[in-house]
Amino acid sequence: MTESYDPAGEGAKMSFARDMSYVDYLALDPILGAQNRQSDAHDEMLFIIQHQTSELWMRLALYELSAARDRLAAGQVAPSFKMLTRVARIYEQLNGAWEVLRTMTPSEYTAFRDDLGASSGFQSHQYRLIEFILGNRNVAMMKVHEHRPDLHAMLRQEIGRKSLYHVALDLLAARLGVTFDPAVYRLDGPHRADDAVMEAWTQVYRDPEQHWTLYELGEKLVDLEDYFRRWRFNHVTTVERIIGFKRGTGGTTGVAYLRKMLEVELFPELWNMRGQL
User: Fold this and answer.
1) How far is CA 6 from CA 3, 23, 59, 83, in A?
2) Which of 9, 41, 86, 176 would staple 112 via disulfide (CB 3.0–4.6 Å)?
3) Which domain holds residue 233?
4) pTM score above 0.85
5) Where are the alpha helices (DSSP H) in the chain?
6) DSSP string covering 172-185, please?
7) Residue 162 and residue 188: Cα distance in Å, rounded?
8) Residue 20: inside a domain, yes or no?
9) Are 152 and 142 in contact (CB under 8 A)?
10) Which has the closest alpha carbon to 121: 239, 225, 35, 36?
11) Distance CA 157, CA 126 (A)
12) Interaxial angle between packed helices 44-73 and 106-113, expressed in degrees from 0 to 180 and rounded to the nearest 10
């Protein structure tokens, strides 16, 4: 019989009375103690962990998007590509998480749905921040955060800054020697497709070798929106599978509202110009 493995025999540290451990470094006690069920329903644990882990991934997405925007604004384009790729992969991870939530049936969700009160993913300030950074800005959505002045101020601060796409368009304009209508840079509303912007991106895509950095930037943005769109689609499908066409717990029209979100385009010129090539 093989003897039990003792990592201490190979020099592994085994005592952490005075040193930082894995649990300490990751602050696992508060994290793993934060699953406070409001009911006795077995499946509520899945629902809580699904949304908590999604918020953690969104925390990282915000970290990477903010850094990518800063790098682009500083003209450090290449490092931003790694960050944008990472955000796309974060959304790939979030897409996979829907598969786990779909193991919950309508009957199982109904067992604890009333215990959610009016809480809803619609109220996620991190999701709203991600949308604002990417350029889909709807000031009316900020009202739901008025009860938390700190979160409301965070969103207000973001509204006052150029979006990630604005910064990308600054780079596009500077390198091609063109200018865009100031309306393109509207801060307090969603980005609207602009013909001059589409023509600029078309110029880049017609000669990738001449404009390789901008060409690669365009593809990084398209890749990011591609995964983001898949996340939205999977969200709609999962909600319809579990609650059908009931209203959401936060008062929205549920699936009907989420389907409207599928029509939102973050970087419309990068999609529309493909038909011009």
Assistant:
1) 9, 21, 38, 40
2) 41
3) 47-276
4) yes
5) 22-25, 28-32, 44-73, 77-101, 106-113, 125-134, 149-159, 164-176, 195-206, 212-243, 255-261, 268-272
6) HHHHHT----GGGG
7) 10
8) no
9) yes
10) 239
11) 14
12) 90
**Residue range 240-274, pLDDT digits in tens:** 888 776 666 666 666 776 777 767 899 999 999 99
Main-chain dihedrals φ then ψ at residue 156, nearest 5 degrees? -65, -40
- What is the pLDDT averaged over residues 177-201? 96
Q: Give the number of domains in the chain.
A: 1
Q: ∠ CA 218-65-33 to the nearest 5 degrees?
A: 145
Structure tokens at 203: 């110029």
Residue 241, CA distances (Å) to 114, 200, 255 in order: 18, 42, 10
Q: With respect to residue 105, please indicate whether it lies within any of the assigned structural domains.
A: yes
Which secondary-structure segment (H or E) carries 195?
helix 195-206
- Residue 8 domain flag: no
Token representation of residue 233: 């689609």
Token look-up 């991870």 returns 93
Question: Which CATH number characterizes residue 84's domain?
Answer: 1.20.58.480
User: Token digits for 52?
Assistant: 């908590």
CA-based Rg of the chain, rounded to a whole angstrom?
A: 22
- Decide if 116 is inside a domain: yes
Give the C-alpha separation, 48 to 119, whole Å.
Answer: 12
